[in-house]
Specification:
mainly alpha; 0% strand
Length: 178
C-alpha cells in the first residue's frame, strides 16, 4: 500500500500544470478520492488552482496577444478610435488633430536636439532653443487633448442615442394605448 501511495505521489507530482488542472476540474470523477486529495495538495504547492489557471491562460495561444506589424500598430495609434457613424467629419477632425500632435512632438524633439547641440557647441543663444521646445509640448497637449475631447463627446452622443433607443423599446408604444 505504501508503494502504491508513493507511486501515486510521484505520478501526480510529474504531471504538467495543464494535466493537473484537467485532473482536478474535468476528470475528477474518474479518480479515487485519495488521488484527488494528492492532486489538490500538489496544486497548492504550485501556487494554487487559481494560479495554475492564470498561468495556463497566459500560455495558451488563443489567449496570447497577436503581434501586429509596427506600421499597423502605429496607424491604429494615430487613428485613435473607429469612425463615428453619425458624425464622421468630427472623427476625421479628431484624427487630423491626433496626427498633428504627433508631428508637433517630432518637430519639437528635433528642435530640442538642435538646442542641445547649440548648448554643447557653446552658442550663446541656446536658451532660445530651450524655450522653443516648450511650445511644441504645449501644442501637443492642446491637439491631443482636443482629439480626445472630440472622441469623448462622440462617445457621449452614441451612448445617449443608444440609451434613448433602448428605453423607447422597453417602454413600448408611446401613443397612450395600453
Amino acid at each position: 500500500m505504501d508503494d502504491e501511495l508513493a507511486t501515486l505521489f510521484h505520478r501526480i507530482h510529474a504531471l504538467p500544470d495543464e494535466q493537473l488542472l484537467a485532473l482536478l476540474e474535468q476528470e475528477a470523477d474518474q479518480y479515487t478520492p485519495m488521488a484527488i486529495s494528492i492532486a489538490e495538495l500538489e496544486a497548492e504547492t504550485r501556487g494554487g488552482v487559481l494560479h495554475l489557471r492564470q498561468q495556463q491562460a497566459l500560455i495558451r495561444p488563443e489567449h496570447a496577444e497577436k503581434k501586429r506589424p509596427l506600421g499597423e500598430d502605429l496607424v491604429s495609434k494615430l487613428r485613435g478610435r473607429p469612425i463615428s457613424e453619425k458624425y464622421p467629419g468630427l472623427s476625421y477632425i479628431a484624427m487630423a488633430m491626433r496626427l498633428l500632435s504627433f508631428l508637433v512632438v517630432l518637430l519639437g524633439g528635433a528642435h530640442a536636439v538642435g538646442s542641445l547641440y547649440n548648448f554643447l557647441a557653446g552658442n550663446s543663444a541656446w536658451w532660445w532653443g530651450t524655450v522653443g521646445w516648450i511650445m511644441p509640448l504645449l501644442a501637443f497637449l492642446v491637439f491631443f487633448g482636443g482629439s480626445e475631447l472630440i472622441h469623448v463627446l462622440l462617445d457621449i452622443e452614441k451612448n445617449t442615442r443608444e440609451g434613448r433607443s433602448s428605453s423607447q423599446h422597453d417602454s413600448g408604444p408611446s401613443d397612450g394605448s395600453a
